[in-house]
């Protein structure tokens, strides 16, 4: 298990939705469609002052954080300030 330090937060990436195909046969993945970045909060560092808690679903800045793969699961270690919103 990962334990974040300082004000870092560990997020578990949401599974990608299915690919879509345009009328001309081009396959678009979620990355190509500019879909917002959603994740679930797994752990919060001891110095974080963000108003989030574990299991919250959040939107975070697209190109921030460090990607980590552990036990076939993908996680992102991100600074708390890079979390933009909590999904209600």
Low-confidence stretches: none
Kindly report the CATH topology.
10 Kd Chaperonin, Protein Cpn10, Chain O
The quaternary structure here is single chain
What sequence of helices (H) and strands (E) makes up the elements? Answer: EEEEEEEE
Query: For this structure, what is the CATH class?
Result: Mainly Beta
The helical percent reads: under 10%
Number of domains: 1
Shape descriptor reads: elongated
Within CATH, the superfamily carries the name GroES chaperonin
Q: How far apart, in Å, are the first and last alpha carbons?
A: 27 Å
Alpha carbon gyration radius: 15 Å
Strand order of the largest sheet: 6-7-1-4-5-8
Question: Could you describe the largest sheet, including whether it forms a barrel?
Answer: 6 strands, antiparallel
What's the number of helices? 0
Q: What is the second-level CATH architecture?
A: Roll
Class computed from helices, strands and strand pairing: mainly beta
Count the beta strands. 8
Mean pLDDT: 85
Measured by DSSP, the beta-strand proportion falls in 35-45%
Brief write-up:
The protein has 88 residues and is mainly beta.
What topology does this entry show?
Layout: E1 8-13, E2 20-21, E3 27-28, E4 37-44, E5 57-60, E6 66-70, E7 73-79, E8 83-86
């Amino acid at each position: 298990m990962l334990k974040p330090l300082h004000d870092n937060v560990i997020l578990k990436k949401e599974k990608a939705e299915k690919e879509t195909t345009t009328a001309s046969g081009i396959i678009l993945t979620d990355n190509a469609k500019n879909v917002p970045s959603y994740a679930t909060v797994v752990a919060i560092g001891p110095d974080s002052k963000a108003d989030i808690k574990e299991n919250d679903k959040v939107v975070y800045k697209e190109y921030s954080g460090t990607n980590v793969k552990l036990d076939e699961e993908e996680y992102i270690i991100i600074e708390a300030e890079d979390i933009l919103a909590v999904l209600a």
